[in-house]
Amino acid sequence: MRKIAIAGNWKMYKTQKEAKEFFIDFLPLVENTIQDIQVLICAPFTNLPFLVSFTANAPTNLAIGAQNLHWADSGAFTGEISAPMLVELGLKFVIVGHSERRQYFGETDATVNQRVKAAQKYGITPILCVGETKQQRDQNETEACIYSQLKLGLEGIDQENLIIAYEPIWAIGTGDTCATTEANRVIGLIRNQLQNQNVTIQYGGSVKPENVDEIMAQSEIDGVLVGGASLEPAIFARIVNYRATN
Ligand code: 13P
């Protein structure tokens, strides 16, 4: 049985004060839905301790996650955060290999793989992001790109404790959503590469209230990873309260 997971990726948005204001408005809008699906907000590191305690009495299917972690337990790695530091906060999820990390901070499939392993070693579920550039799509290299990211990123990985997010880079923050049938097709291809057929696979890239119902109605798509539209409580609540017809 595949689990549904609706996740917000706040990226580098929201101070602690703004995060608190978000949750005050957001929680009442989703408290009934949240029992059935995994809902997740991946917030900046500085917000994590506060948000974990602020949501301590929220339904258990609401989780706070991180946006990255380093592969070492500790060490001279200025600016990085380790898995034991996330575990200490009680975190159960972390985004790994987001395209912005790959594009702006030089992360490679090899380091992404190490980060995924570090998360799993400490019982944290990594959300491994994969996705092609516009140029790769235009040159019919989407499949090759995804297969390579999966092969290298998943080397030696336990597929029991894993979420994958398919985020075509050209659809991130552009308003240019991937056609739902195409997202479904690529996610089906991703699933074909996995040993564990029950891995939750999300779609990400310009998800909004206007398209979430259609996205969630697709047979292969088990959730969404939402950037911009996760920043406003009412908008993200509508995404969490999606109305898929399947
Ligand atoms: P947008 O929803 O803003 O396109 O961002 C998607 C994303 O990068 C989520 O990780």
Could you describe the 3D structure shown?
This protein has one domain: Aldolase class I (TIM Barrel, Alpha-Beta Barrel), CATH 3.20.20.70. The protein is built from 10 helices and 8 strands. It has an 8-stranded parallel β-barrel, surrounded by 6 helices. It is of the alpha/beta class. Helix 1 (16-30) crosses helix 10. It has helices at 16-30, 48-54, 83-88, 99-104, 109-121, 134-138, 142-153, 180-192, 209-216, 233-240, and strands spanning 5-9, 38-42, 62-66, 93-96, 125-130, 163-166, 200-204, 223-226. The longest helix is centred in the N-terminal third of the chain and has 15 residues, at 16-30. Bound molecules: 1,3-dihydroxyacetonephosphate.
Features:
alpha/beta, 246 residues, TIM Barrel, single chain, 10 helices, 8-stranded parallel β-barrel, 15% strand, binds 1,3-dihydroxyacetonephosphate
Strand content: 15-25%
**Mean pLDDT across every amino acid position:** 95
**Ligand identities:** 1,3-dihydroxyacetonephosphate
User: How many domains would you count in the coordinates?
Assistant: 1
Q: What best-fitting shape do the alpha-carbon axes yield? A: globular
Radius of gyration: 17 Å
The CATH topology is given as TIM Barrel
CATH architectural arrangement: Alpha-Beta Barrel
Query: Termini distance?
Result: 15 Å
Could you name the CATH homologous superfamily?
Aldolase class I
The H-and-E topology, N to C, reads as: EHEHEHEHHEHHEHEHEH
The proportion of residues forming helix, as a percent range, comes to 25-40%
**Name of the CATH first level:** Alpha Beta
Low-confidence blocks of residues:
none
**What does the main sheet amount to?**
8 strands, parallel, barrel
* Secondary-structure-derived class: alpha/beta
The beta-strand count equals 8
**DSSP summary: helix tally:** 10
Strand order of the largest sheet: 1-2-3-4-5-6-7-8
